[in-house]
TrEMBL record:
<feature type="region of interest" description="Disordered">
    <location>
        <begin position="457"/>
        <end position="521"/>
    </location>
</feature>
<dbReference type="InterPro" id="IPR003960">
    <property type="entry name" value="ATPase_AAA_CS"/>
</dbReference>
<keyword id="KW-0067">ATP-binding</keyword>
<protein>
    <submittedName>
        <fullName>AAA-ATPase At3g50940-like</fullName>
    </submittedName>
</protein>
<dbReference type="InterPro" id="IPR003593">
    <property type="entry name" value="AAA+_ATPase"/>
</dbReference>
<keyword id="KW-0547">Nucleotide-binding</keyword>
<dbReference type="GO" id="GO:0006950">
    <property type="term" value="P:response to stress"/>
</dbReference>
<dbReference type="GO" id="GO:0005524">
    <property type="term" value="F:ATP binding"/>
</dbReference>
<dbReference type="InterPro" id="IPR027417">
    <property type="entry name" value="P-loop_NTPase"/>
</dbReference>
<keyword id="KW-0460">Magnesium</keyword>
<dbReference type="GO" id="GO:0016887">
    <property type="term" value="F:ATP hydrolysis activity"/>
</dbReference>
<dbReference type="Pfam" id="PF00004">
    <property type="entry name" value="AAA"/>
</dbReference>
<comment type="similarity">
    <text>Belongs to the AAA ATPase family. BCS1 subfamily.</text>
</comment>
<feature type="domain" description="AAA+ ATPase">
    <location>
        <begin position="234"/>
        <end position="394"/>
    </location>
</feature>
<dbReference type="Pfam" id="PF14363">
    <property type="entry name" value="AAA_assoc"/>
</dbReference>
<dbReference type="InterPro" id="IPR003959">
    <property type="entry name" value="ATPase_AAA_core"/>
</dbReference>
<dbReference type="InterPro" id="IPR025753">
    <property type="entry name" value="AAA_N_dom"/>
</dbReference>
């Protein structure tokens, strides 16, 4: 009975409500009706204290940056509070990532704002399109009391974005990009995490040169305002030159590690045209080192004047039209001698760097074993800001190698090494190889390396004395001859005067041509 009465009262209440609503709707002016409606809605919603924000993985099929930031932010929080976690590590990556499992919840208080996070995965129907989107709708739900609405928007969300940026930077994995194998799936660059162990501590070059390079790099990265004030692209060009095995690649890795930059290893022979070169460069990121190794071998960038005089000679010999045919048939249609249509002007445009104004700083490093083969246009200041000569091993570099490989600062054989080293051409790579083969035995390492130096010295003696038989030369003054001094001390009674002379000649020749310590021009 009571039940029937209740229903009756509900029924009459509803009837009254409908009557009042119709009366209001029919008799009140529409403006007043709208104001009342809004008031009613406000009262109704304020009775519900909780509001939620949904942050979906994709926003109109584009990656949602806020979702990524929240994911990073929560991965740093969820370990302490969520009950079920997911742990992942991508291949070749050194970072472990924790994340919340579906429907897990996490609560936190930021300042005095209490918020709740939950993670959801909802299976979705296939779109029928071929591309690889996940079959789940993934989203985070952020819930909080409505009184915090403005503060969540003005301080909590920006706080999340800031924390995520810091985490991203700390766990950032630098990459080594290469354009060699990138074409297979349509990408311009393929990448792997960059983790080369070479640093300025391990690279064996003259300490003064090391200091100079480091200071130059620091000056470069700290001069954003300067570059923009003087209207120049924020880029710098280095040319590393010297014989093979003198540490050009090792120095590049040390520079990238020092600056914490990515490396783009640009293989010019794999670039089909100037426009592809432009595309490749535009797609590089800021804070990167772009490397072109062995530039003299990559493209025909040799001195234009020499080429021009060669062309004049060929014209005279064959007539212009015939020379043109000879080149075409030799090189292939319109391409240079390496089959690529990247030209010197394409490379010069790349070095001049209009493209590099699209973002932050970029360092370009070219290496060559034959600086003299490069076109002067490529070498001029503004294109190659620094020319760094890496040459045969000198004593300071030798000591760095001994410290790295044999873990010694000093040794009884060091004095002898210091005396013999300037008389022979040995690359750091060769010395490193000898040290490596001695597996931590410092005594053996030092002995083997000095034996090798002496062997080279003796071979040089023999070669030079053979030359002397054919072309006898004047004797150098004995008192000015450091080699003779060394040989007299070490080999008294073994070597005759002839070989001392030839060693002196050898020393003189090497000092003039190659035994310059590594230097910057
Ligand atoms: N200056 C150096 N400091 C430390 N290690 C060096 C140095 N030079 C050579 N090495 C050692 O020798 C190996 C070869 O050196 P690297 O590739 O850097 O020489 P490179 O000058 O780039 O040679 P190339 O001109 O043939 O490319 C490196 O793996 C490194 O271990």
């Amino acid at each position: 009975m009571e039940f029937i009465l209740d229903w009756k009262s509900i029924g009459s209440l509803l009837a009254t409500f409908v009557f009042i609503r119709t009366a209001i709707h029919d008799f009140l002016p529409p403006e007043v009706y709208q104001v009342l409606k809004r008031l009613f809605l406000n009262i109704f919603t304020s009775l519900q204290p909780k509001i939620s924000i949904l942050i979906e993985e994709y926003d109109n099929s584009y990656n949602n940056d806020i979702y990524d930031a929240v994911q990073l932010y929560l991965s740093s929080k969820c370990f302490s509070s969520a009950q079920v976690l997911k742990l992942a590590k991508s291949r070749n990556s050194k970072n472990l990532t924790f994340s919340m499992d579906a429907n897990q919840k996490l609560e936190e208080t930021f300042e005095d704002i209490k918020v709740k996070w939950s993670f959801h995965c909802v299976e979705k129907k296939s779109s029928g399109l071929g591309y690889a989107r996940p079959h789940e709708n993934r989203y985070f739900e952020l819930s909080f009391h409505r009184k915090y609405k403005h503060r969540v928007q003005s301080s909590y969300i920006p706080h999340i974005m800031e924390v995520a940026e810091v985490i991203k930077f700390k766990t950032r994995e630098r990459k080594l990009y290469t354009n060699r194998s990138a074409d297979e799936d349509g990408r311009l660059w393929s990448s792997v995490p960059f983790s080369h162990p070479s640093t300025f501590d391990t690279v064996a070059i003259d300490p003064a040169l090391k200091k100079e390079i480091k200071e130059d790099l620091m000056k470069f990265v700290n001069r954003r305002e300067f570059y923009s004030r003087v209207g120049r692209a924020w880029k710098r060009g280095y040319l590393l030159y010297g014989p093979p095995g003198t540490g050009k690649t090792s120095l590049i890795a040390a520079i990238a590690n020092f600056l914490e930059f990515d490396i783009y290893d640009l293989e010019l022979t794999a670039v089909s045209s100037n426009s592809q070169l432009r595309k490749l460069l535009i797609s590089t990121s800021s804070k990167s080192v772009i490397v072109v190794e062995d530039v003299d071998c990559s493209l025909d960038l040799s001195d234009r004047k020499k080429k021009e005089s060669f062309e004049v000679e060929e014209n005279e010999k064959y007539g212009e039209e015939k020379r043109w045919w000879r080149q075409r048939s030799h090189n292939g249609r319109g391409s240079n001698s390496f089959g690529s249509t990247v030209s010197l002007s394409g490379v010069l445009n790349f070095v001049d760097g209009l493209w590099s104004s699209c973002g932050g700083e970029r360092l370009m490093i070219f290496t060559t074993n034959h600086k003299e083969k490069l076109d002067p246009a490529l070498l001029r200041a503004g294109r190659m800001d620094k020319h760094i000569n890496l040459s045969y091993c000198e004593f300071n570099a030798f000591k760095t190698l001994a410290k790295n490989y044999l873990e010694i600062d000093d040794h009884k054989l060091m004095k002898e090494a210091k005396e013999v080293l300037p008389l022979v051409k040995m690359t750091p790579a060769h010395i490193a190889e000898i040290f490596m083969s001695c597996e931590d035995d410092a005594e053996m390492g030092m002995k083997n390396v000095i034996d090798e130096m002496k062997r080279r010295l003796t071979n040089a003696d023999e070669e030079d004395s053979q030359v002397e038989v054919e072309q006898p030369k004047e004797e150098p003054k004995k008192e000015e001859d450091p080699v003779a001094e060394y040989r007299n001390e070490e080999h008294a009674g073994k070597d005759g005067g002839d070989s001392v002379d030839s060693v002196a000649e050898n020393h003189k020749r090497e000092t003039e041509t190659t035994l310059q310590p590594s230097s910057v021009e």
